[in-house]
Every structure is written in structure tokens, then in C-alpha cells.
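Predict structure. Chain length: 275.
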Amino acid sequence: MLMSTEGKSRVVTTYRLSEMKARGEKISMLTAYDYSMARILDAAGIDVILVGDSAANVMAGHVTTVPMTLNNMIYHAQSVVRGVERALVVVDLPFGAYQGNSKEALASAIRIMKEAEAHAVKVEGGVEILESVNRILSAGIPVMGHLGLTPQSINKFGTYTVRAREREEAEKLERDAKLLEEAGCFAVVLEKIPAPLAARVASQLSIPVIGIGAGNGVDGQVLVVHDMLGINNEFSPRFLRRYANLYDEMKGAFEQYITDVKSGDFPNESEQYAE
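Prediction complete.
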């Protein structure tokens, strides 16, 4: 029991993640976008918190992640970092903040690290963004890669279906994963790809591979917290396991509150102050 407590309280770093992979310990990762959720996740013992640009969907109601701005990401990251004592906080570089201009990529990453005091950044893509990855890494900023289904490129794909089923795309993904490792990325996320391919990539890389819809043969898993808690009840992909059904629970609580207010039952005598 003592070992479990010590492991839970030890601060997670990029180096610790590599240790976890080496000894076969799975890595747990979830998203957070605000202080309160980050505090709960950190207290639960999550290894990595991703301040994802999925905030565009679950926090702001956008259809895609594309509208998310760098200022938006810094705001959410600042809120999350304030609530964390143990977990590694990784922040998505949003669409337009790093593609095609490595100097702008470095400037964006520096802003996230300085203004939010985050621990690392995440970028989507392989060889196409390698120059930006190299420039960010040259400044000593840890980078997590992201391959497979890359939501920032959804307008290019035109669909959220499983990626890398075809041989050519699968081979490119394997090459890109190796390029990211060789560049110095500390980990790679693989999203919505066939499980055998993901397991093969994980076995080929010495850095941790985190999956989302990529099967169990990888080094860890990540989910969007609003999805796994059932707050977002309209999203039900095959890879999602719901650990709660908070939409119905919260809606029921709100309905009861409305009923109590309108009936005059709230507040009762014990919930108000006497003279």
C-alpha cells in the first residue's frame, strides 16, 4: 500500500513516462480544460493531463477543433496548471500555430510554456511538420506527436473514419512515428487506427505510444473527459467506454433544483440566516 501511495504522489515527468514504458506500466491520460476538473484528475492520480484543442468542441460548441486559437489554449492551460501538483500537463498547439512556419511554431510553443507554465506541447502530423518539431525541440521544449486521425486536418480528410487501413497510409504512419522519435519527441498519440498497426508502432518505438481508438497494444490510453464521463452523450464511437452518465445525473439535479425553487421548497428554514 505504501508503494502505491508513493507512486501516486511522485511528480510525473517526460523521463518518468519513458521509465513506465520500459517496465511495461500503462500510462493514463485524460483531457481537462479548467481548474476544477484538473484538481479532481490530479487527485485521482492521472499520469498525464492533455489540455486539448477538443475544448473547441466540448467547451465552446464548435463542430471541429479548427476555430481554437492560441490565446484560447493558453487560457485553458493556465486554468489547468493551477489545479495540478503531480500530473504532466501537455497542451495542444492549435491549428495555424505551427503548420508551415517553424518560427511561428516556436513562438507559439514558447508562449504556452511561459504564459501557462505548461510542461509540454502536442502537435499533429509527421514529416509535413518536422521542421516545426525540430525548432521547438531545439529550444528545450518537450513535444508529443499525434498521428493517425488528426482532427485539425478534418477538412482535408472529410471524414472521421478509421485511418491507415490502406497499406500506403499505414507505411507512412510508421515512417512518421519513427521520424518523430528520431527528432526527439518524448511520446506519440495514435488516434483511430487499426489495433495491429498501433501495436506494431508501439513495439518499434522506444518512446511511449498513447492510443485513442488504437487498441490495447500501446503504452497508454487517452480519452476526452466529457466523453468518458457521459457529459457529452451524443458521441458514441466504438473505442469509447463511459465510466459515468453525468448528463442524466446533472440534468436530473438541475430539474429538481428548478422544481424546488418554483415550489418555494428551496431554501428551507435550515438553509437561511436568522436575524
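Summary: The domain at 2-244 is CATH 3.20.20.60 (TIM Barrel).
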